[in-house]
Write a structure and sequence with these properties.
The chain is mainly β. It has a single domain, classed as Pectate Lyase C-like (3 Solenoid). The protein is built from no helices and 16 strands. A six-stranded mixed beta sheet has the order 1-4-7-10-13-14, with no helix packed on it. A four-stranded parallel beta sheet has the order 2-5-8-11, with no helix packed on it. It is globular and about 55 Å long. The model has no long low-confidence stretch (mean pLDDT 91). It binds calcium ion.
Length: 195
């Protein structure tokens, strides 16, 4: 937190893969996650919020990436960008990604776009489960990005491939909405079941 970038992937893994999960990436001056040139990256169960510029940004060569179970909220209020049409999730020129089960909300310039290299164009994520609703962090001004009891991100992710514990070590999934079915929450923090 409080850096220029949260996570930067700069084409250093060659043909390998990368996994970014269970991170709180907040209040950085610039991008939350910047991915220049990496295919086969998985971005899962991160809370990416209140960063000055774009929450998740891809550029040339980045494709076939999985972006799921994240909260991407309130990014882009600290950096002027007249050509940007989104500051939530911006995919690269190829745009072949698997984007599903994210809460992408209230990003300054818009939630989704594709950067073709020549400019930003509209982008609609392919996957199911995308929502755009206030994630209702418990107390984000004081750094608490856990979910309030009435957060729409609770039990709204996918259990498939979700990490077995959250950033605080809480076991996933928990039945956070008391409907009898434990489902993973979006973001880095899993709300404990009441009972
Ligand atoms: Ca849950």
């Amino acid at each position: 937190m409080g850096n220029g970038f949260g996570v930067a992937l700069l084409n250093s893994l060659g043909g390998g893969t990368a996994l970014i999960q269970n991170n709180l990436i907040a209040n950085n001056d610039f991008m939350g996650i910047i991915n220049i040139g990496h295919p086969h990256v998985t971005v899962r169960n991160n809370t990416i919020a209140d960063n000055g510029f774009i929450g998740y940004y891809e550029f040339v060569g980045a494709a076939n990436n999985i972006v799921e179970n994240n909260v991407v909220a309130r990014n882009g209020f600290g950096f002027p960008c007249t050509v940007c049409t989104a500051t939530g999730i911006v995919v690269g020129p190829v745009g072949l990604n698997f984007i599903s089960f994210n809460d992408v909300f209230d990003n300054a310039k818009g939630n989704y776009a594709q950067n073709t290299g020549a400019g930003f164009i509209p982008y609609t994520p392919s996957g199911p489960g995308e929502i755009s609703a206030d994630p209702k962090f418990r107390n984000s001004p004081y750094g608490d990005y856990g979910l309030s009891l009435d957060s729409p991100a609770i039990d709204a992710g996918t259990n498939t491939d979700a990490p077995p514990r959250d950033l605080d070590g809480v076991a996933r999934p928990q039945d956070g909405n008391s409907d009898g079915v434990p489902v993973v929450d979006m973001g880095a923090f899993e709300r404990r079941a009441v009972n």
